[in-house]
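Re: Re: token formats

Sure, here are both.
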Amino acid sequence: MFIGRQQELNTLSKLYHSGKFEFAVIYGRRRVGKTALISEFTKDKDTIFFTGVETNEKQNLDNFSRCIMEYHTGIAVKSSFASFPSALEYVFELEKTKRIVLVIDEYPYVARASKSLASTLQLLIDKNKDNSRLFLILCGSSMSYMEEHVLSYKAPLYGRRTAQIRLSPFDFFEACRWFTKFSDIDKALAYGVVGGTPQYLMQINDSLSVEENIKNTYLNPSSSIFEETSHLLKQEVREPAIYNAVITAIAAGCSKMNEISNKIDEDTSVCATYIKNLIMLGIIKKESPYGEKSGRKTIYSITDNMFRFWYRFVPENTSIICRGAADLAYKRIAPELPAYMGGVFEEICRQYLWKLLLENKCAVNFSDLGRWWGTNPKTRVREEIDIMGSDKDTALFAACQWTNEKIDPGILETLVERSNLFHYKQKHFYLFAKTGFTRGCIDKADEMGNVTLVAYHEMLGQ
């Protein structure tokens, strides 16, 4: 079942119907659904679909030749082209009679084995692009390779692409489409547990409870998710042990660069390199207080929910899990889930505000959103605001509460008080609640007139 990706499909469709040479680069972390997207796009088109493997040049050339000849003749042919240049030239000849999509999936595997492949593609594109109708798609999971050797200005193919798509995990509202049987609360919990990566969403069975799903995946040594973090790091980076140490340190509460450095006993300059790569992979995010530049207040946190859940709960329970005591491990995890979901709910609320903005329904036409934290100069107490966004002299301030109690007027009053640390002419306040609002809070919001109350179930259109 293919879900979502409408924007990406529209982009590819527009390129396809241009009728001229197009070259799209599609990249993203493993399991994010790149091949599924391309397969969906090409299902009704003349396509040569070649997937590279981690082997030598000869075997990849043989496989590529087989894909070309099977497309051209309709039968499997064992003969092989003499070289990649001759194989690619043949494809450029084939496309003169009809529009053809040439897909080279897992391009880094092929290019690493054939050092001259990028230069060959460059020469053939420059030679044929003005008169060609070929639609070339290069796809890769190695984020660093695709950015350095395909998209970088130093790369031979720089300037030849006509589009690039960095595929990201689904947001919460897209991920919900996978779960037709879950309750609204369970949809949020499931998203908090595995995030929006399609391959991980597929591991969740919405005919079972979230508890059973957690036991079947994270608390089951034989499940595919149990060792997924380790496998993914080994595939993406050269020194997975140090990357693992960095993520573990952040999961343990080390949010500043010097704290992470001290925790793993590495220089901050070394840590900075590893963290930069983890940010590029979409595992870690870097934050500064809203409206402030990066500096000593900058913090780092785990942004990918699958990694976040795994590192938060699995390592400390590994011995129990490996002894098959999933029930005992879950009993240890369950009391901490509400606090864990607080951060997840904040992210869902941010996504909801972006959704409102794109639908022209948000009270403030912000250009960015973020958290804010800092010291109140009057009280000398550290204050936090869950979400902030602004547009010139107008700003929104939001508080998010994932609790079973309804939000009372005190939460709104605190948010208003903290907003006074900022000097915007107009302010609008959003309160997001898991279970709703007390009568007093509703009356206070009505009295103020610049407050929007949003119960969680309303975010799902109910």
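Second one below.
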Amino acid sequence: MQEQTERPGPGEPVGRASRWANARKPGDRSPWWQDRRVAIGAAAAICVLVIACIWLAGSASVARERMAMLEARAAEGFLAPPSTVRTERVSLGSGGSVSMGGGTPERLEIHIDARSKKFNLFRIAVLRDDGTAVMHFDRLQRDSNGELRFALNSTLLPPARYSIRVEGFTWRGETVPVGGISMTVVR
């Protein structure tokens, strides 16, 4: 039998020539974008970007929910108007205690006896039991009776135990502890 030789097709000589022209020489390196490490790095970067986008979408939805809750709360009002007004007089020396709340919203006026010749200006800090400052009144002066006065709405603070710390300002502007009282807020 005779072997049949195949005749090259019309595009084959050009195909051989282009393969021969594109053949790499032994010392040549492929371009950087054809390196396997570039593809792996790009895939890792895409994975990180996808995870970051998912995280951002989740945090944005949490922020939208929180904003909607705050807007609803602002529409109804943060503070309930007090139906009663009560006055409590306490002395720093006795380490008094004050309670507020327990039913209807009330306004509690606190009068702290601060008859000290050492200080003219005072700072009052309201702290939670864990020591976190909730609010403070800065540079308060005594009234003519020698008392520091301030008022709180019972719906302002969540139910918990608080301490009220009183500090006096020296002539240099530094604060010195004067005393404190405890406060309990109930609903």
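Residues 110 and 150 are 6 Å apart (CA to CA). The chain has two domains: 35-76, 84-186.
- S.
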